[in-house]
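pinging the channel bc i need a second pair of eyes. not urgent but kinda urgent?? the chain im working w is below, pasted from the shared doc
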Amino acid sequence: MVVDHNVIRTNQVFTISLLALAFVLDAPALVGFTGIVMLVSALVPPLALFTRVYRHILRPAGIVQPDVILDHPEPHRFAQLLGGTFATLGAVALLAGAPVLGWAPVGMVIVLASLNLFVGWCAGCMAYYWLNRLGVPGFEHSRVEGTR
């Protein structure tokens, strides 16, 4: 299986940018929107909004070139599912009037997405691979040697 890692990076750029903007503007609805986009992308990949922007606008315009490598998409989807869950829970807490409980998970998503974007370390992927090692059902792929 191969994965275009620039699709993943594009998702991270959108996620980091939108969540940081939401923090600056104090916009819980933008946090919720971003969280829902992440969840839909993880659960129904053909509907992934940020991926569609990459595939239909950025790549055809030559703004971003593909970076296809041997990898499994499932750990990346799991990471996005976790990020989307944390962002959505953060939005719910913000809308409920609990700013500390709301911005903490949002900040965590920003930091972890930034680590993946700038350093190439994916916390959600690591969690997926740990669950694979433990033999948890549904986590059938182990890390492909030579992947980032």
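so The longest strand covers residues 2-4. and The chain has six helices and two strands. — does that match what u expected or am i reading it wrong
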